[in-house]
Design goal:
3 domains; alpha/beta; 6-stranded parallel sheet; 12 strands; 434 Repressor (Amino-terminal Domain); DNA-binding; homodimer; 13 helices
DNA sequence: TTGAAAGCGCTAACAG
DNA sequence: CTGTTAGCGCTTTCAA
């Protein structure tokens, strides 16, 4: 131990073979005499050998890690307590571990941070990037593309760019919510939208409004939120001010829906009796809320896994044309609507 | 680009100097003629050079990454949606980025996964490990120690081991809760403990009971939970069954406290009028709960940062003796008690 | 099937 | 202050 970790050389010496042979058995290459394999394996055991990753990476040009970057967040690091990002992380980690790949967590919430991410990838510290953007104007995807870094996005980028991504059909999700509320006989329906500079928010709103229009409601009272509890509460207050007789609201995520429920209750309204509330995501707050939230489920973990899969594939065979995978949302009916 | 990324050699050629000189300016070493520095910098700019991390690591024996491992969790990957782990992650990421170090996320929820973590570190894929264990019997700390991997723990390990760790004074936290409840005139006080195979749970409970005893309450109705909302709800039901007249409960984390509030309300009890509830952690659910939770705050982000700091220090100067840093908890009074 | 040898790109003595 | 020169530990032709 005092002389440093054992190397291929050490193992080779003990086994009485060449470095090349040891390397072959370590990497499971065929064409090695079974008997020698045995000898080598013993030598490995005996020396406690473990291949040096840096040395291997230097020649293979692969690190076995990918960057998982949360980009564009002005929110700093409380993104990690956002249930949505937690689910993305869970999905990514779960999938990658099956392939012996590990995610390096990075926050790209400033221009400098973005440059660091690009540098990190250019240095070959990771083989590719998994990108979750929170703003449509996020410049990172383009920079990654320009740097020739393999990257896959969670959600359609603000401006078209030849990069693969996974997404959910947000418009369909909005429609699901509208249909449910109208079918329940609600007639005074408003919505708390997500930040409108995010494509997902725009789409959820568009889908919701379209469906409402088809149901005979040309105008839908709307308040914009920022996907946080605070912004959701404020939006609910505004909605209530504009439309005191409101009897249903569709919020663009569960956090805002939960906040809306609190505000409504504080105003003496019962949920769902007086006002029905539908959320979006189906993450932890939907269940923690009282009443539990009826919500549009987004299969975040599956989507995150698909995103990771896409990246691994593009690492396997580079030069493929970008692909997109769109998931279907699903209405989960609980007590709030 | 088609010929691979530019190397030190390329830059040296363009600048008309030796590789060594380029290396020196890249690494900010002193003793380089300012004029030459300029020339080299231009050459770097011109070639778009970016140092190859694998090559560098091979010689420096440093990767600039550390493993952030969540260990012992039987819970699989939903740990990522646990607000507690989110805060740990946030604290770690925030601190490490200041030092140009990045965390690799790993889950060590099975024996195989633990072996993979050890292998990962032994291969030099990361310079050290930041370990958050969920069980006191977690064998990972010992294995890491045996493998000679620099590691720092979040929370005191189940069995003493010469490894640094950060922790909060759980007993003091328990005392804070007891004192507050008693001072508020509550007389029928119970507690929902965390899983008792976790030192933190034991300590919170011990501190709580001690203080209660000092206040003249030798027996405290106790129900064990598992730090999850479900287990908290079940524990509350048991407590209610054993002690229908209960007028206060201290839960070992906010998730369980929130669940307790729901159960109490479902039983027609008002919080805090009929039953006061105190949580532990002061994480998101404390604020999302109605009424908002009075809780014992654990400065998780600061603790996580301190843990990362400890690791970086031990990487800087190896062979130091292990250290521990204990934080003081703080009572945050809100509406629930 | 196995071994010899040539690097991968970089840092760090060691000279000069 | 700068260049030369050894490797770091591994994979991978290329011969044998």
């Amino acid at each position: 131990m005092s002389k440093g970790a054992p190397t291929l050389e050490d193992v080779a010496r003990v086994a009485g073979v060449s470095r090349a042979t040891v390397s072959r058995v370590v990497n499971g290459t065929r064409n090695v005499d079974p008997q020698l394999q045995e000898t080598v394996r013993n030598a490995i055991e005996q020396t406690g050998y473990s291949p040096n990753r840096a040395a291997r990476s230097l020649v293979t040009r692969r690190t076995g890690t990918v960057a998982l970057v949360i980009s564009g967040a002005g929110g700093g690091s409380d993104v990690f307590t956002d249930p949505f990002f937690g689910r993305v992380t869970a999905g990514v980690v779960d999938f990658l571990r099956l392939h012996g790949v590990h995610p390096v967590l990075m926050l790209a919430d400033s221009d400098q941070a973005r440059s660091e991410v690009v540098e990190f990838l250019r240095q070959g510290s990771a083989d590719g990037a998994l990108l979750v953007s929170t703003h449509s104007a996020d410049p990172l995807p383009a920079r990654l593309l320009a740097a020739g870094v393999p990257a896959v996005l969670y959600a359609r980028p603000g401006t078209p760019i030849p990069l693969s991504y996974v997404d959910v059909d947000h418009q369909a999700g909005g429609r699901l919510a509208a249909d449910h509320l109208v079918a329940a006989g609600r007639a005074n329906i408003g919505t708390i939208a997500g930040p409108l500079d995010v494509p997902a928010s725009q789409d959820r709103l568009a889908g919701f409004r379209d469906a409402m229009a088809r149901h005979g409601f040309p105008y839908v009272p709307t308040a914009e939120g920022g996907f946080t509890a605070e912004s959701g509460a404020a939006a609910m207050e505004r909605l209530l001010a504009e439309c005191p007789g409101i009897d249903a609201v569709f919020a663009a995520n569960d956090l805002m829906a939960q906040a809306a429920v609190f505000v409504l209750q504080a105003h003496g309204k019962r949920v769902p009796e007086d006002v029905a509330v539908v959320g979006f995501d189906d993450s932890a707050p939907a269940l923690a809320c009282r009443p539990q939230l009826t919500t549009v489920r987004q299969p975040v973990e599956d989507m995150a896994a698909a995103m990771a899969d896409l990246l691994l594939e593009s690492l396997e065979k580079p030069g493929q044309r970008p692909r997109s995978i769109i998931f279907e949302p699903e209405l989960v009916v609980r007590a709030s609507a």
